[in-house]
Specification:
Number of helices of chain B: 7
Strand content of chain A: 15-25%
Largest interface: A-B, 25 and 23 residues
Helix content of chain B: 25-40%
Order of helices and strands of chain A: EEEEEEEEHEHEHHHHHHHEHEH
Helix content of chain A: 25-40%
Strand order of the largest sheet of chain B: 3-2-1-4-5-8-6-7
Number of strands of chain B: 8
Largest sheet of chain A: 8 strands, mixed
Shape of chain B: globular
Strand order of the largest sheet of chain A: 1-4-8-5-9-10-11-12
Number of helices of chain A: 11
Oligomer: heterodimer
Shape of chain A: globular
């Protein structure tokens, strides 16, 4: 399949303060984003793609001179792909607090002249959505044809449907959940503790000390990574395979899985920001749209106007199919138009990023329907990586 | 009236559609590629959901604009509230269920009316096959005994008894020929597909 080719990120500065759910506010901020395809004359073909924990605005395409820099959903988004950039104007936005360009803990706090560090205000999924809405305003998009996301991105899509019900026609919630379970929060807190107790963390001000809490980040990533894979997938990929020929009777690397996780942890600690990891896991923990409705998700979703596609994967134990079914059930109770696909894939939570033909076929069919449902479908013949 | 878009609608579905009230809220269990829901939505202004387990058919439903929920009917209908639908369709699917009675009770719970169809095992060629010492293989039962997905073989008379037991009253019962035309004379002999219209008691 062809790809978008070279893409370039853009940045937009917002001078108006953003009030946050916590009561704090960001006085001003920058959002980094990418767009693919062409916005049609009546601005009706825009699709917002929301990213998950360790991803960014770089959804698809590659950066010039970096052939290995394909976006995290390059198999989903592009010309002729399920979310076809010859039809839709696709936007990826880096969320606040991230470490990939939008205002985050490593940037200078205008009030102090020093990096925010751990004093960067805790942001929620809803805060992100409000910031995304301001970017949509600035780009002239009043209503998205669709808002889509996987995992934490799916939570943002769901939040869009409740916070701005008339600003999206369709909502695609993939491998997501209406709230984290105690087990999910527990894993997140172990990851946070690994970072918080790393001596190089310096209570979040490690930038000033010229160090990075790599050990904490590494353990956090290793724990996270375990929850992204299924037991079967791990058994299939690694089993009890040894790195060498026999047991070493020590605490180095014996098993292939140890080697793999350490490698993943090392790689992650090279580029990810520890404060961002703390922030994003908290945003995950806090997400619970039903909380203000006595825990009743159907009530929480009663104001939605969008049509929905919900997708889950059978071996995803992080956000299991049951969680997606809760969303579907709440929508059905509200008599919303919703389709639900439960893909029998072996890859656990990560399946939402992978090439399962059944999964991609459902999303493709859905977007085809979205496209034909647009008031004035005008084929954008020229694809443009603005 | 069936427009060009639905010219290929299976004959039995076309017959059954006339039992669904215009504007009804419909649940189609085992909706396949969504042809029936699509027809009911477009031609009769109905709304609702299809339920289907087959991966290959989900994108086809989605593409038609049918809201489809992928699940195994054996898992029950907990997704749906009591009396959520005017009409629950279960067309040529019930005979593949292990827990027929449980599914039927759930149908009675979520719908005010139900339309259920299944191959009539008492269709005369089937009786003839049994008389000659073989399990029937026909257009309506196109499988060998060892590879059939049809776990439950029922006749028109048998089904009426079970319907009554789960709280459904038979308001209409028709046996259809292969071409979708209703059989007037000796339906339990001459009809290959049994179709029941049921109402909650």
């Amino acid at each position: 399949m062809t790809s978008l080719g070279n893409v370039k990120p853009q940045a937009m500065h917002f001078a108006e303060p953003l009030p946050l759910q916590s009561g704090a506010a960001l006085s001003d901020y920058t959002l980094v984003y990418e767009t693919y395809g062409t916005l049609n004359a009546d601005c009706s073909n825009a699709v917002l793609v929301c990213h998950a924990l360790n991803a960014s605005h770089h959804v698809a395409g590659t950066y010039e001179g970096q052939p290995k820099s394909a976006g995290w959903w390059d198999n989903m988004v592009g010309p002729g792909k399920p979310l076809d950039t010859q039809r839709f104007f696709v936007i990826g936005v880096n969320n606040l607090g991230s470490c990939f360009g939008s205002t985050g803990p490593m940037h200078t706090n205008p009030a102090t002249g020093k990096p925010y560090g751990a004093s960067f205000p805790v942001v929620t999924v809803e805060d992100w959505v409000h910031a995304q809405a301001r970017l949509a305003d600035a780009l002239g998009i009043r209503k998205f044809a669709a808002v889509m996301g996987g995992s934490l991105g799916g939570m943002q899509a769901l939040a869009w449907s409740t916070l701005y019900p008339d600003r999206l026609g369709h909502c695609l919630v993939i491998a997501s959940t209406p709230k984290l379970s105690a087990q999910n929060i527990a894993f997140n807190d172990v990851a946070r503790q690994a970072i918080l107790t790393d001596p190089d963390f310096h209570e979040g001000d490690f930038y000033a000390h010229g160090v990075v809490p790599k050990r904490g980040l590494r353990v956090a990533r290793m724990i996270g990574h375990i929850t992204y894979l299924s037991d079967d997938d791990m058994a299939e990929k690694f089993g009890r395979d040894l790195r060498g020929t026999d047991y070493k009777f020590g605490y180095g690397i014996d098993f292939e899985i140890e080697s793999y996780l350490r490698y993943q942890g090392d790689k992650f600690s090279e580029y990810f920001d520890a404060n961002t990891y703390l922030l994003i896991t908290k945003a995950l923990d806090y997400f619970d749209p039903a909380r203000i409705c006595d825990g009743d998700l159907a009530t929480a979703l009663s104001g939605t106007q969008a049509e929905f596609l919900v997708v889950s994967f059978t071996t995803d134990w992080r956000f299991a199919p049951e969680r997606s079914r809760e969303i579907v059930q709440a929508l059905v109770k509200n008599e919303r138009r919703v389709s639900y696909a439960e893909i029998d894939a072996p890859h656990g939570h990560d399946a939402f990023l992978l090439d399962d033909p059944r999964y991609l076929a459902v999303v493709r069919a859905y977007y085809d329907k979205v496209w034909h449902g647009l008031d004035t479908p005008v084929l954008a013949v020229r694809q443009e990586a603005a | 009236m069936i427009t060009e878009r639905f010219a290929g609608l299976r004959a039995d579905l076309a017959f059954i559609a006339h039992w669904v009230e215009p504007g009804a809220r419909v649940l189609d269990l085992g909706c396949g590629d969504g042809a029936m829901m699509d027809y009911l939505q477009v031609e009769k202004n109905c709304t609702g959901y299809g339920v289907e387990i087959d991966d290959a058919r989900i994108p086809r439903c989605v593409h038609r604009g049918v809201s489809v929920i992928q699940q195994d009917l054996e898992g029950g209908l907990a997704m749906f509230a009591d009396d959520a639908f005017d009409s629950v369709l279960c067309l040529s699917a019930l005979q593949m269920m292990k827990n027929v009675e449980g599914v039927l009770r759930d149908i009675a719970r979520v719908g005010r009316e139900a339309i259920v169809s299944f191959p009539n095992f008492a269709h005369w060629p089937h009786r003839l096959a049994l008389l000659s010492g073989h399990m029937p293989v026909s257009e309506s039962l196109p499988y060998q005994w060892y590879d059939t997905p049809n776990l439950r073989c029922a006749t028109i008379s048998d089904f009426s008894d079970l319907a009554d037991e789960v709280g459904l009253r038979v308001i209409e019962c028709v046996a259809l020929k292969e071409n979708g035309a209703p059989v007037v004379f000796l339906p339990n002999w001459r009809g290959s597909l049994a179709v029941f219209r049921l109402r909650k008691k």
